[in-house]
Amino acid sequence: MRKTTMRVTWIGGWGVSPEDLRPLAEGFLPGADHAFLPPVRGAAEAAAGCDYVAGWSLGAWHVMEAAARGVRFHNRVLLLAPFVAFCSEHGLGGRCSQTQVRWLRRWLQGEPVAALRDFYSRAGLGEAPAQLPYATGDLLAGLDLLAQDASPALRKFAAGGLPEKWQAVIGGSDPLLDADAVVRALPGCQITPGAGHRAEELLGAIRKEPHAV
């Protein structure tokens, strides 16, 4: 009988081209059929039936938010740099204020490349792209999501800990998120000492755990 290829869907972070994750994905799960989506409404639902769903940053938030609304993920789920609510005012581990997020939104509308460059610098993501990684409307909608508080359903879902077959990891030196506070809001999330917000740093730690793949 022919072996079925594992289907993996990656939901990227805000402001990052989903395809930028391809080299990491193929190194992490070689031989799998990888698909890449931006962190937009409906992405988590589109990924739910795959053999493996990986969400990074805002992508991880979309996965948790969908699960809190009752979307079922039947197989493996990996959350990289997850957060329940992004802004510091919400007390769930975010280091950025709503004012900063709203300021970035206004800047993105006027000088999008400069706004992305500043975000990449603050997040420790390296060199920013010379053009927008996906649609402006989706980037603006993502910032609106980052600025809002978590729903009661999402808070309850996160507080209950990670479901079976789920794994989450956050960097101990993440410039955008307080790892200890995120773990309190999302029990079961593991801290990787020294890692920041970059997906490759977090995936590198997961590779060292044989049970994670």
Give the amount of beta strand, in percent: 5-15%
Give a count of the beta strands, DSSP E runs of length 2 or more: 6
> Mean of the pLDDT scores?
94
Give the strand line-up of the largest sheet: 2-1-3-4-5-6
Radius of gyration of CA atoms, rounded to a whole number:
16 Å
Task: Give the oligomeric state of the chains in this entry, treating copies of one chain as homo and distinct chains as hetero.
Answer: single chain
Our count of helices gives 9
The best one-word shape is globular
Helix content: 25-40%
How far apart lie the N and C ends? 23 Å
Major beta-sheet overview: 6 strands, parallel
Structural class: alpha/beta
Poorly predicted residue ranges: 208-213
Order of helices and strands: EHEHEHEHHHHEHEH
Question: Can you put this structure into words, describing what you see?
Answer:
The chain has 213 residues and is an alpha/beta fold. Helices cover 39% and strands 14% of the residues. The protein is built from 9 helices and 6 strands; from the N terminus they run E-H-E-H-E-H-E-H-H-H-H-E-H-E-H. The chain has helices spanning 22-28, 43-47, 58-68, 98-110, 112-123, 136-147, 152-159, 179-185, 199-206; strands spanning 7-11, 33-37, 52-56, 76-80, 166-171, 190-192. It has a 6-stranded parallel sheet with strand order 2-1-3-4-5-6, sandwiched between helices. Helix 3 crosses helix 7, helix 4 (98-110) packs antiparallel against helix 5 (112-123) and helix 4 packs antiparallel against helix 6 (136-147). The longest helix is centred in the middle third of the chain and has 13 residues, at 98-110. The radius of gyration is 16 Å and the shape is globular.
